[in-house]
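Hey team,

Filing this mostly as a record. A colleague (T.K.) asked me to run one chain through the structure pipeline before their review meeting, and I want the input and output archived in the tracker in case anyone asks later how it was produced. No errors, nothing strange. Just documentation.

Input sequence:
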Amino acid sequence: MGRSSIKNNFYNDFDTATFPASREKRSDDYRTSFQIDRDRVTYSAPFRRLQSKTQVFQSGEYDFYRTRLTHSIEVAHVGRSICNHLNHTSAFIKDDFFIDADLIEGICLAHDLGHPPFGHIGERKLNALMGPYGGFEGNAQTLRILTELIYYQGYGKLSGMKPSRAFLDGVLKYKALFKEMCTHEGHGGHQFPSHHFVYDDQEAILAFVYGGNLPPISERGEKSIECQLMDWADDTAYSLHDIIDGIRAGFITPTRLEAWAKKTLDNQGCLRGFYVQKALETLIQAINADNIEWCFSKRIGDFIYACSLEPQTQPGPLAQKTARYQFKLKVDPQATAECELYKAIAFDLIFASPPLQRYEFKGSTMLSQLFAAICEHYIELENGLKILPETTSHWLLHGNPSKAVKIRRICDYLADLTDRQAIQAYKRLYHPDFGSLTDLG
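Output structure:
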């Protein structure tokens, strides 16, 4: 008898409960709660928009480079493969007690929904602009999309997809509120937290994840096993695939790698050791042999097989309610060291390069000016111009919202834009020879 026909006791009613409490389901719907979560993400507009959002290189610049969408699909495949590997090899897994692969796939597909245009600089710039108003964080924005914004219902109304608790928790990499991080980082002289928080008005969602009572921040450091698995699948995909794209784009060459290694490896303790040196030599050989795709396809398999399950030695507050907190993902130290090597190479030779820095500067400038213009005409001026599309203006002003709600909606609008849409919106407002009276965008 296959696992699909056996009740999976790894999950219980606590895990499948939805936010909010009710979720409509046809009486003849054969899908599990987690399959519904996955399907609702896959067929959503925010998921489709990832096809035109930057992963490393500007979306649309070269057709064969990865976007946020292809990256998310790759993370989902890696995550599902890790899940299947653990379910087939771990002594803690039984025929009626296993990690749900559909849940993992849905979490991985959703993990980047909240990322704004222009890659990481877009996230940093929106966080700086929103600093006085509750900040911006990609993971928090993903949570906002899933619970409030994923469906446009017309007439200025949006709604969430009523996700399950296990799905929400799997997406949640960070569980500190903005105000808590401000207090924590304030001791170091930071006015606003730089990253790793959820929005203050998401406290009820965070409490739901914990079953109704939000524990102290000191007890919220753990991640569910599904979130841990997604995190490693994400690291696997982008650490390996960013390198491939960087090589194909000419940023990473044997000469540059050798110069980088001579300058860097001896100065970073985490990048020392025989295995790191061996991985670097293999990378240079693969570039010279022009078989980098084949070589790194094998590395994906190695990173998957580097995973195993082990029990939590100090279970947190959720371990009594769900098996999702009774285990932790163990990854072979050689794989994590190699992953850190590739991340360091990508940062120094790609992201810190003048072409990428210029692109980040332009993206940052466009977002700043768009934010300022929209705030001026929709908040500061009593009779401001309607400079946004009619449906966007209607949503922004729907329900006579407070200033704080308007500013958060402005942030939602900017974060939702693809790279191309953001550039067009900027040109429409600031380039005198772009657009016309019949331009409906």
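Quick notes for T.K.: The chain has three domains: 32-219, 225-354, 359-429. Residues 204 and 212 are 8 Å apart (CA to CA).
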